[in-house]
Structures are given as structure tokens and as C-alpha cells.
Specification:
The chain is about 35% helix and about 20% strand. It is of the alpha/beta class and about 325 residues long. Helix 2 links the parallel strand 1 and strand 2. About 5% of the residues have low confidence.
Length: about 325
């Protein structure tokens, strides 16, 4: 009888252990991306898949968001743990400048080096006689969701051509909505910030009704005074359907994967390690991310925000950084 009781007790203890949080602890990670029509969303999905496959007891999911600004705020409120983010937006938030004035987000950290580069993509309906961004005056133009990184781009690009929202009818819509509205003739133009080859732009260009407007030298120099971090880009002919011409434009420093300083070092180490040791899983998403890897890992003093200690540990162990 005593032996039977001991057996029952042992089984009970084992069951308690097996079903305790310690034995089945799952790390839940939510990753903010951007709208589903851009490149951030599929990149986020690919990274979440890599983490789930390579980190024990990891449950990572990628969600669509309004982009960099919302991602930073959701990391702040701990609704998400990591996000794809424009490096210049992370820089502004980290240093408490512009919209973040007086509220430096000094807890922001980079989990990766550069991921991919964007290219400001300004489109217009061919039959509207629009050949320059300055021709947007009096037109209905999609500028992105209020407060998003894309909407900030729109304000800056318009300003470089002497325009404000008072000169146009702004439509504060996400990229996929902008595509639908332009296809239906409800808007005449859109200012979109995408990585080259984005599906939303391809969908527009395949109709043959849309042209991509340049940000030529004069506009670029004016924009550079507003946003010193931008660089020149060229959308080569053939980047999109029915684009048989090169397009001068510009873009921000490479996007980063960002996180909070308080995310455990060992966890970030594993997340960074799994990405850089499974590069094909990210690069296969699109041409825009084929450059993702060690070559885009900048030295710490050249980063716009600091690396997370876990990421830095991996980069040093792997010989990517000194």
C-alpha cells in the first residue's frame, strides 16, 4: 500500500513538473512590419519563420502595422518586441528630435545591421498630364496613414517642391488602398516609400495607366536640406512592369530590425544568430533583400542607434565586427 502511494506521489510530482510553466515555457515574440503591400511584411514573416524553426520554444508572429512610427510606439508600450524600422526614424526617436522632441527613446536598440534599402516611389496617372511632383498642385494624392513614416516622407517630398498639404487634397490611406483608389481613378497621385520591386507598385504599373515620377537633382538637393540622411537611388528600367526608363529618386539609410534594451541578451543573441546563419530564408523573399547579411553590418560608431548587447555579442563571436 505504501509502495502504491509513493508511486502515485511520484507520478503526481512528475505531472506537476511537466505541466509547469518552467517545463513548457514558450517565448512569444510579435514583430511589427508595415502594410501588406510593401516589402516589410513578407520580410517579417520570413524572419518569424526562421526564429520558430531555429530557437527552442519560440513562438514568433509578424503583424501588419502602419510602419516605422507605429512600430516604435508599439515597442515602447510593449505590444510588440521587435520590428522592421527605418533607420532614420529610429535615429529621430532615439535622440528625441522632431516629433519625439523632449522624449528620447534611449531604450531603442538594433537587433541587426542593415536589412534593405527603400526608394521613394512617386506615381501619377498618365492621363492627368502630371510630369513632375510640382504638378500635384490641386490634385488628390495618397500620402500614407497619419503619423506614419510614409506620411512624413510625403510632407518632406512635397516641401522640396514648394508644396504643402494645403496645395493638394491628401488621402491618408495605406498603400494597398492607394493602389485601389488610383486604379479606380479616385486619386491622381501617390507618394509611397517602398523597397524596389514592391508588389503594390507592380500591381499599379501592370495596368499601363501609371508613370513613376523622378526626384531629380534639384528636388533631391532641396530634400537633402530637409532630411540630411537621405541618399540618391535609381529605379532601373524593368524594376516594374511597363517601366522602360530609369527613374532618379532617393532613399533612407537601410532599414533595421529594432527592439528594446530590456529584451534579454541571450534571446536577442539567438535571434540575431539564427537570422545571419539562415540568410537564404530572408534573401529568398525578394531581390530587395538579397544584400541582407554581414556586408550591411556597420561598425557600432557608424550605426544610427546602438546595437543590442545580444546582437553585438553575436557579431563579435562570428567575426563580423571587431
Amino acid at each position: 500500500m505504501l509502495k502504491g502511494r509513493k508511486m502515485i506521489l511520484a507520478v503526481g510530482i512528475l505531472a506537476l513538473f511537466l505541466f509547469s510553466g518552467a517545463a513548457f515555457a514558450v517565448t512569444h515574440i510579435t514583430m511589427g512590419t508595415a502594410g501588406v503591400g510593401g516589402m516589410n511584411y513578407p520580410v517579417g514573416m520570413a524572419m518569424a519563420k526562421i526564429w520558430n524553426a531555429n530557437i527552442k520554444d519560440m513562438k514568433a508572429v509578424a503583424i501588419a502595422t502602419a510602419g516605422a512610427v507605429q512600430n516604435i510606439d508599439m515597442i515602447r508600450t510593449k505590444d510588440i518586441e521587435v520590428a522592421v524600422c527605418r533607420a532614420n526614424e529610429a535615429y529621430r526617436a532615439f535622440n528625441g528630435i522632431e516629433k519625439y522632441e523632449g522624449k528620447p527613446h534611449s531604450w531603442l536598440r538594433a537587433l541587426t545591421g542593415g536589412v534593405m534599402f527603400d526608394a521613394k516611389t512617386v506615381v501619377a496617372l498618365k492621363d492627368e498630364g502630371i510630369t513632375s511632383i510640382k504638378d500635384f498642385k490641386g490634385k488628390r494624392v495618397a500620402v500614407g496613414p497619419v503619423g506614419s513614416g510614409g506620411e512624413l516622407d510625403a510632407r518632406e517630398i512635397l516641401a522640396a517642391y514648394g508644396l504643402t498639404y494645403k496645395d493638394i487634397t491628401p488621402e491618408y490611406v495605406e498603400a494597398s488602398q492607394a493602389v485601389d483608389m488610383m486604379s479606380d481613378g479616385l486619386i491622381q497621385g501617390a507618394i509611397l516609400g517602398f523597397t524596389p520591386g514592391a508588389s503594390a507598385i507592380s500591381e499599379l504599373m501592370v495596368t499601363g495607366k501609371v508613370i513613376i515620377l523622378p526626384i531629380e537633382e534639384e528636388g533631391y538637393q532641396a530634400l537633402k536640406k530637409i532630411n540630411p540622411l537621405i541618399d540618391k537611388r535609381v529605379l532601373k528600367a524593368g524594376t516594374y512592369p511597363n517601366q522602360d526608363y530609369d527613374v532618379e529618386t532617393c532613399g533612407d539609410p537601410a532599414d533595421l530590425i529594432i527592439t528594446r534594451e530590456d529584451i534579454p541578451e541571450d534571446l536577442v543573441y539567438q535571434m540575431t544568430k539564427s537570422l545571419y546563419e539562415n540568410l537564404d530564408g530572408v534573401r529568398s523573399v525578394a531581390a530587395a533583400v538579397r544584400g541582407f547579411g554581414p556586408d550591411l553590418v556597420a561598425e557600432p560608431d557608424k550605426m544610427l542607434i546602438p546595437y543590442h548587447p545580444g546582437a553585438l555579442r553575436y557579431f563579435k563571436e562570428a567575426g563580423i565586427l571587431k
